[in-house]
């Protein structure tokens, strides 16, 4: 059922934001304009709303926050104004909208539309997590709030981490199903002469996707768990190890190509307690401290990697990449999108 006429609510930008060029995050009230079942475990929802015409697009792996009304509640519960977060925190848990992070799959400002792909972890009472349950039941006309920047830009302030250096000649991407939308957008944006490997683990062989404009030099390797009867992350670890072996072999292993021999400095990889801390280690110029407390500048090698998925798996892939193959930490982004056992 379509909702009644509504008022679009947005938070004003601050004077400081306008002066520095940094984005102010604001709430965009939108509705579901379309629904497309991509595969058994993926659904694409198209959101529309006039407010989206001023959404601040940032890059191909841009993350936004969704504020989902509690069952039986409406988007009217989402706080307004610049202090929305303080107000949201202060709300009683039973009415506080659920906040979850998702990747923008596509944005069409001229049509005020945004696509977001959801992984469906079951359906109805079998659904795992409030966002999956909401997406599984969402229909055209349902309202939701999107939290995002108020002006175009690039980089981490816009929720974007894909940032290969100009020296990158070989690309390595790896992720589980939660990383598929970001990987798809990244691959579709690459120059035609790009080369590299993408290792993608998904629940089912029916979840393999076909994308437009992926360069021929990118070897996309789908790893469906149901075919191999594997546990989550098992195929991704095997696939990444194979890919690293191939890419390091191609580089000649002399350090100039991207996979130097492990040194004492590289081997000193501090541990990250993913049960209590976020594993989010991003190389960039003037980088902030990583989850382990180190500043990571982009390394100028030929190999650049982007790895995302379940935090425990990414932690193991990080150790394999840096310690096992000697890839500089400043050459790879490691992102724990979610943690097993937590919705």
Automatic annotation (TrEMBL):
Gene3D superfamilies for this protein: Nucleotide-binding domain of ferredoxin-NADP reductase (FNR) module, Translation factors
Q: Which PROSITE patterns match?
A: FAD_FR
TM annotation in the entry = none
Protein name as annotated: NADPH-dependent ferric siderophore reductase, contains FAD-binding and SIP domains
* Stretches assigned to the FAD-binding FR-type domain: 25-156
Where is the stretch described as Disordered? 1-22
Origin: domain of life: Bacteria
In which residue ranges is the amino acid composition biased (Polar residues)?
A: 10-20
Q: What GO annotations for molecular function exist for this entry? A: oxidoreductase activity
